[in-house]
């Protein structure tokens, strides 16, 4: 019976091992599924998010062609807006689930102002525009990420259906002709490992049963019947040649049988171990199960809320590009290059600094654009243009923080830094929306705030001029406003110094006025807003004696900007202030609070 069970174990083991091996070889399906994309001669290929999510799981983009191949991804609406003035191949998913490629013709032309100057930084090469609207896609601020490789580009992706992928070369030559998207297909064989292991165990059991069967047969033999008388055995002379041929060793056969049994069992175990060593993790069932996600705080997005203009990683990359371009412009004192990444009050102050550094050898440069540690990103929630993004950057070395506003005019323009200030040491920021939710932009004439953004600069300028006597003084928080205190102290100090030497022949007056730059405002969670405004401080020096003249010999800045050493009519010197305020919403008991400020020379002129 042992032999029967041994044979049954051998047969079942063979079936199980064969089945396990077959699952990993002939019966195992393909590991990936690939969709090939056919394209014509268009310079761009736009692969829609529906195509990328045709199958679940991550995607792998492969593009092959001559030269350097470019690929990027971003929000589908943003990428279509960037391609609105160009011909491209739109790759979508048809109603039957098949990949469809459609020629798309230009719909719009970029604004004239979106074209950069010939001296634009290499980091802004994406904005090079021709009459046929062909431009390099490299470095556009709209992309969430981008890739470049020579000859063959392979990019692993995991994108939702709201994003698309752009494939191109240089924006002028045809896009790569060989493009495909592949997905990993689930071809796990969770029972291959158990079958092979179980078969190996059964094979060992069968061998043991077979050995036990042989042993049982040998032991079950009864006593032998005596045979015919044997002749008398003569003694064997060991000295005779070949006498050892008649010697029989009782232990020799036992050792031989033991070696044969060992030889039988060891190969079986070795074969099973070799088979199991080739089984990967997907050859075994997963009994652990999926981890239970921990609950997180729910984020309520207002109905109809638009997507945020940028992500945190995108904002960090944009700030780095701005800082690099501005650093190059500062080194060359190139206002045109600076204008490719700066705008508004920031650009005006930089242009003045370049002029002063050109006329005064030891005049200091303005501080570099900070990018060290991005603490806060508040993008505008919008799907059109223009767009605004607020950021707060910490500087661990100086133990300070900078607050800034970036603006993008249209889909083809780079983001530009429009406002930049230093936060006060004890500044407490209001509650802001998460960066993945975004905030709405507050219009300049909004009536939902205690003061409209377009009125804020003039009101605060009046407070600087009149102090507590201003009609607007009660609407602003005075405690902790170091900027207002420093302006008042500086004016008094300069006036006292001027009166000691020139009070009898001249006059010095100060005035703050609303600047020429438009305010920018983003909403906070308490129905308030963070508002950035521009205020100008104008110092006027006039002679009060008909025979007196105002000399600028001791003021190299005024002499350089005004282009004159003296004047019988006097001089005006203008400083530009960039100010950030928190403005509460209507019905709030809070006052308007200054968050950050900066002040730099803007201009100096001879009074006509």
Automatic annotation (TrEMBL):
Record-annotated DUF8094 domain positions: 308-604
Keyword terms of this UniProt record: Membrane, Transferase, Transmembrane, Transmembrane helix
InterPro entries with a match to the protein in the record: DUF8094
Pfam families hit by this protein: DUF8094
A GO term for molecular function: transferase activity
Keyword Transmembrane helix: yes
Region (Disordered): 104-137
Domain of life: Bacteria
Bilayer-crossing regions: 191-212, 262-284
Keyword Cytoplasm carried by entry: no
Compositional bias annotation for Low complexity: 104-134
Record-given protein name: Glycosyl transferase
Source organism of this protein record: Microbacterium rhizomatis
Classification of source organism: Bacteria, Bacillati, Actinomycetota, Actinomycetes, Micrococcales
């Amino acid at each position: 019976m042992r032999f029967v069970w041994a044979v049954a174990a051998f047969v079942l083991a063979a079936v199980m091992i064969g089945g396990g091996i077959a699952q990993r070889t002939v019966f195992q399906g393909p590991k990936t599924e690939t969709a090939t994309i056919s394209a014509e001669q268009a310079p761009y290929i736009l692969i829609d998010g529906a195509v990328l999510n045709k199958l679940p799981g991550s995607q792998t983009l492969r593009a092959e062609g001559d030269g350097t191949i470019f690929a990027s991804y971003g929000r589908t609406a943003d990428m279509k807006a960037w391609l609105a003035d160009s011909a491209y191949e739109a790759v979508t998913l048809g109603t039957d689930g098949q990949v469809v490629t459609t020629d798309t013709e230009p719909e719009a032309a970029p604004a004239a102002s979106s074209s950069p100057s010939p001296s634009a930084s290499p980091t802004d090469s994406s904005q090079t525009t021709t009459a046929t609207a062909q431009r390099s896609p490299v470095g556009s601020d709209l992309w969430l990420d981008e890739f470049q490789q020579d000859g063959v580009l392979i990019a692993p992706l995991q994108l939702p259906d709201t994003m698309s992928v752009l494939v191109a070369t240089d924006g002028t030559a045809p896009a790569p002709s060989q493009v495909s998207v592949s997905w990993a297909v689930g071809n796990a064989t969770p029972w291959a490992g158990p079958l092979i292991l179980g078969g190996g165990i059964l094979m060992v059991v069968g061998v043991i049963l077979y050995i036990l069967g042989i042993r049982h047969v040998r032991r079950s033999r009864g006593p032998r019947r005596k045979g015919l008388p044997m002749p008398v055995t003569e003694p064997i002379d060991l000295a005779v040649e070949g006498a050892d041929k008649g010697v029989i060793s009782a232990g020799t056969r036992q050792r031989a049988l033991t070696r044969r049994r060992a030889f039988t069992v060891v190969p079986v175990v070795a074969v099973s171990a070799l088979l199991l060593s080739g089984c990967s993790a997907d050859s075994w069932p997963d009994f652990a199960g999926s981890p239970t996600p921990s609950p997180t705080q729910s984020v309520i997005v207002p109905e109809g809320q638009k997507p945020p203009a940028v992500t945190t990683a995108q904002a960090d990359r944009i700030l780095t590009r701005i800082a690099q371009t501005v650093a190059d412009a500062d080194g060359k004192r190139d206002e045109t290059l600076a204008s490719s990444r700066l705008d508004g009050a920031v650009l005006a102050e930089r242009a003045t600094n370049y002029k002063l550094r050109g006329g005064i050898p030891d005049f200091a440069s303005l501080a570099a654009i900070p990018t060290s540690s991005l603490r806060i990103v508040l993008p505008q929630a919008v799907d059109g243009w223009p767009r605004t993004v607020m950021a707060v950057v910490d500087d661990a070395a100086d133990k300070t923080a900078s607050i800034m506003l970036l603006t993008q005019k249209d889909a083809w323009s780079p983001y530009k830094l429009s406002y930049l200030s230093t936060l006060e040491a004890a500044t407490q920021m209001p509650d802001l929306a998460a960066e993945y939710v975004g905030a709405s932009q507050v219009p300049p004439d909004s009536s939902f705030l205690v003061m409209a953004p377009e009125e804020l600069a003039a009101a605060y300028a009046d407070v600087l001029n009149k102090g507590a006597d201003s009609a607007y003084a009660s609407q602003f928080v005075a405690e902790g406003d170091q900027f207002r205190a420093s302006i008042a102290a500086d004016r008094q100090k300069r006036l006292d110094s001027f009166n000691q030497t020139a009070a009898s022949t001249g006059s010095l007056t100060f005035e703050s006025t609303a600047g020429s730059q438009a305010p920018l405002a983003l909403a906070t969670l308490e129905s308030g807003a963070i508002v950035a405004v521009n205020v100008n401080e104008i110092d006027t020096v006039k002679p009060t004696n008909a025979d007196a003249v105002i000399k600028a010999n001791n003021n190299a800045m005024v002499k350089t900007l005004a282009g004159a050493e003296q004047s019988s009519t006097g001089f005006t010197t203008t400083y530009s202030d960039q100010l950030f305020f928190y403005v509460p919403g209507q019905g709030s008991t809070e006052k308007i609070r200054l968050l950050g400020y900066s002040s730099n020379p803007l201009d100096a002129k001879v009074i006509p």
